């Protein structure tokens, strides 16, 4: 008891606050229907109160109660009489621990750790070993601050996820998340706790994406913020108990993967005129006015963009973990979207084309799997833009064209600028689809690389001297042995047109290519897609039966 007239100390505040949380937990568990969200919230608040009062052993025991509460809420454990008895006994033990806090002993620490381990085991988790986290760089006060603010952020994110599931168009809960982020963002020591800075940056950028009027929220938007809540809660807990979070922990990886897919969900813009039927109309009755853009990029803007790209390259290349690399790559997607609309003129167009290609590299995951090659491209483009004030515009435009081609080449395994097929297969996830040998330019390049690796020899025009007329097509011999083979039957060239499913497959390939081009090239692709739609209506021959004109004797 505190002497009359004596100011309350930290231990007194802790006894009052923790005692209130424990009484509310006790009353909650006696109700016929357990409120799982309130159960988790009170247990988390109790843990934060213990950390602020520099009572790590009590905080670990409270974390065990929180683990049980989460297991019940997430369906991993059932709220049966046995689980209820364990939780009630744990709350009673915590009441004793709170009363003994002013005269704490090593024996009390052992009892609290035993309770924590038992609760963690019942929740299906393993309690981390208790160690002196202060030896890892943060004092008890800083660890307690991170733990408490992290718990507040996790709570705000959890409420936002639930609100988004009920109403995917609601944005008010996200403002509460932004306010909850502010105290932790202002902590100078946060940069020493990776990947927490990148995690908070990713949360802020996801909220900014949802705030854009033209952005269409994906169906799993609530899962993104739910994963963020789990990641920040886990990170704050590891800071409190171990001194720093595990950058490659499963909670961080899950959030990073969802965030990258979140950036892929934005639909591509298409001309309004392409949405009408191919008839006499009327279609577009009044042409809209495009938003005003600067005629040309000023030197200061170029230098600013160049410096930003160089910093982004360094940040991506130096990321110490895959999780941080994924989070930093997500921030680049927004950067490239801004660069794609920087102004008019030949230089701005080249910058926009590079930005579109680079954004595709990011959303495809190649920027994470091959960071050195992608960072080198970003750094070179940054150097060009930073030095553009004193350079020749024509030379600058030409070099940007080459770098755009190199960025697109990263999307093709086996290309000179990108990973070889073996390297791509080694780095790619098992579930990722490889690029097929399709009839377009990309597929032709893949086929050529496969044949060249097998020893086909250098390319030659000799086989073209005896090529058939333009109305027929005959495969060319690939070697003298092949030239001596029996003559291949003549194939009617009309049988080589796309039909049915093959026309639809070709249209899907053009859709991928359309993301990387603009202007006249995009219009040409749209016209080809329209032709393919007409061909798709005509059914093709069964795969096992060749066209009549292709059969011997026809």
Describe the model.
This protein is mainly α and 554 residues long. Helix content is 60%, strand content 1%. It contains 21 helices and 2 strands. The protein has helices at 10-29, 36-52, 56-73, 81-100, 106-122, 140-166, 172-185, 196-211, 221-242, 250-264, 299-317, 322-339, 346-363, 366-369, 371-386, 393-409, 421-427, 441-453, 480-483, 500-514, 520-537, and strands at residues 472-473, 491-492. A two-stranded antiparallel ribbon has the order 1-2. Helix 3 (56-73) packs antiparallel against helix 4 and helix 12 packs antiparallel against helix 13. The protein is elongated. The N and C termini lie far apart (106 Å). The model is unreliable at 129-136, 415-434, 463-486 and 542-554 (pLDDT under 50).
How big is the Rg? 31 Å
Helix content: 55-70%
Given the structure, what is the number of helices?
Answer: 21
Contiguous low-pLDDT stretches (5 residues minimum) are 129-136, 415-434, 463-486, 542-554
Task: Tell the overall outline.
Answer: elongated
Mean pLDDT: 74
Trace the largest sheet across and list its strands.
1-2
Query: What's the count of strands?
Result: 2
The largest sheet is: 2 strands, antiparallel
Percentage of β-strand residues: under 5%
> SSE order, as H and E?
HHHHHHHHHHHHHHHHHHEHEHH
Distance between the termini: 106 Å
**From the helix content, strand content and strand pairing, which structural class follows?**
mainly alpha
